[in-house]
Amino acid sequence: MEMISQFKSASDNSIIPIPPVEMRQLVGTTDLAVFDNPTGDNVLPLLGERSYGEIFDFGCGCGRLARKLLQQNPRPKRYVGLDLHAGMIKWCRENLEPCDPNFYFIHSNVYNKGFNPQAEVTCKEFPVESKSFDAIVAHSVFTHLLESTAMFYLQECARILKPGGAFLTTWFLFDKADFPMMQTFQNALYINEEDPTNAVIFDRAWLKMALAEAGLVMTHVSPPVVRGFHWELRLEPVESAGNEAELVEDLAPRGHVPPPVLTVHPYSIGSEDS
User: What is the pTM (predicted TM-score) of this model?
Assistant: First the structure.
């Protein structure tokens, strides 16, 4: 049985609920510390002062980032979290929205085999205005999108960024030059024959092309800590970007970091019938 279900907020000393363990498993970690910001520090230092402005959390899950931003001092001016998992959005609305009137959570009813299998479309425009956010965060989102969907959402992220804004995102990357059997129009590798979005690994050259098409520039690159795992990129609109950063060679040590294997259907967690 889990002993801790709440932590105190650094900003106002009130109690902020922490998501249940089954939802934390869905977003990749059950470690309570990953959901906590007891010092009230800037949660997103790579974004600088943008962390205190208007933030769009694409793939907010059960509120891992939102909860830490509620503890940040000062909090963001506005926070909007969007996710396709109805149960996690329901939990965030009931438990995190009441903590701050400027925090909002939106369910995006798009198809995903594990998280939202009943939806009929694979992508939708963000239900927010253009050029309205100082920062976008998409942690472990583009690692689960097919190529066409990834291109669509890169362009959506570029649309809603303010001039001078920035976008933090993670990717799995490979070099297609090492795979001579691939066609010029094939730019992604998949690991799961039943659900290709389980993990999607993109060609580095394709990513650079896709960013240019969306009007975005890489201005910071953090290589994986385990070889082949998440690259963290900071992207900025081309018209206001700083110096472009390059993807370096992945020299991280090898390791094994698979997600947890669930014993229930992911989409059922947090639903009315679960």
Answer: 0.94
